[in-house]
Task: structure prediction
Amino acid sequence: MERRSSFHWGLLLPKPKLEKKAKQRQHRPTSFLPDSPVQVNLKMADSYTSSRNGDVSPNGGPTNASSPSLVPTTQTGALSSVIRKKLMGYVGFANLPNQVHRKSVRKGFQFTAMVVGESGLGKSTLINTLFNTSLYPPKEPISPAAERSKTVAIESIGADIEENGVRLHLTVVDTPGFGDFVNNDDSWKPIVENIESRFDSYLEQENRVNRMKIVDNRVHACLYFIQPTGHSLKQLDIEFMRRLHTKVNLIPIIAKSDTMTDEEVMEFKQRILADIEHHNIHIFQAPTYDNEDEETIAEAEEIASKIPFAVVGSDTVVVTPDGRQVRGRAYPWGVVEVDNEEHCDFVKLRQMLVRTYMEELREYTNDYLYENWRTEKLLSMGVAQDSSVFKEINPAARLQEERVLHEAKLAKMEAEMKMVFQQKVQEKEAKLKQSEEELYARHKEMKDALEKQRLDLEDKKRKIESGRPLTPEKSSTTRKKGFLRNT
Ligand SMILES: Nc1nc2c(ncn2[C@@H]2O[C@H](COP(=O)(O)OP(=O)(O)OP(=O)(O)O)[C@@H](O)[C@H]2O)c(=O)[nH]1
Result:
């Protein structure tokens, strides 16, 4: 079932804090002198990296722009260094978070939440309350004659929602029938199968030739509704969480907490946490990072202290005794306000699920839960990783190896060039020899012709000198002819 709506529902994907800082920096006057240290930094950009915040030296103190401090990086040892410099003007990379922000807003977001819990624990009501809309239509009462399903069903509802220009495609996966049977031993099975089939579908999309349009249907968070018994977790709860904690971000919730007193809620929470710890169940915890500010750390700690969230759901507006209109549940003894942190943990749940950690939930699903599942799946299919691909490489040995390879390549090129040169020389020599022989033959021919000519001339000379006619045959004939004439 797909629904489209455009309304205000409390989702505020906060702009990165850096954006504000970047804007402040943008308006700061810059001292960009021609030979300012910024230019020096830019020239060194090929071999060195500027520090992330640009104003703290490696030992924590402020850096001097004119005296760069070289810090060897752990990865590359003595081969390269990181230089930390204070920029003297606005360069622009502080605007990177804004670029990411703009791109994300343009692309929109996808989020899939699963709700699991026994029938009537207020799952639909809480989802409607969380997203401030009637995502789930009012239920029609089931007639006693109607046949109930004998297995856990999986139903999803999709909605396109928008807040302050940010679009979110929300999918809620419901699991009607969970825990509703006499024997609930295998209630978790269809749910695990559904989560894994979504992983399968994602893996199949990743393996396609064209991966331009990957649709992420993986379940990013599972709200597990615990019955407000006030005792401890039931076998069904433990079994479900044990089976699913490695496949989905589990967020345990005490349903209908308005049916218990504050003390009962506190004690119940402690028993649930003890059970969770005893069974080594991993539930989603708000992550904290080293470089975060005190406010963020305090917020994460406060959220963590409320787990499991004791919530009250209501999508109807009631009037408080002091005349305020609030979302809540009206009782003869007073009004339980959904959005009042003193009445229940709904606000903290929304903060964890939507306002502060939606992206973390998506990231954890992708980077750990899906990744582990994928590794196991591929290994079970016989796909093995070539460990040599990731072997650690000593930079000095690598350099030496590269040098040897380079030298071998040079030697090979030199030998090839020599061979080509020798070949050319041989060809040239052969040609020269041939033309020499030809010349020699011609020379000999000419010499013979000249010799013959010389001999002829000498013969003629001798004849002239001896007074003999040069052409005796001719003169005798003439004489003979003359003699003949005279007689
Ligand atoms: N006291 C109390 N009642 C609640 C709360 N949330 C929901 N209800 C009521 O509990 C009843 C069942 O709520 P649903 O939201 O339909 O419960 P569900 O878990 O979706 O039920 P199924 O769809 O059958 O699984 C309704 O009458 C709600 O008004 C709550 O926080 N406190």
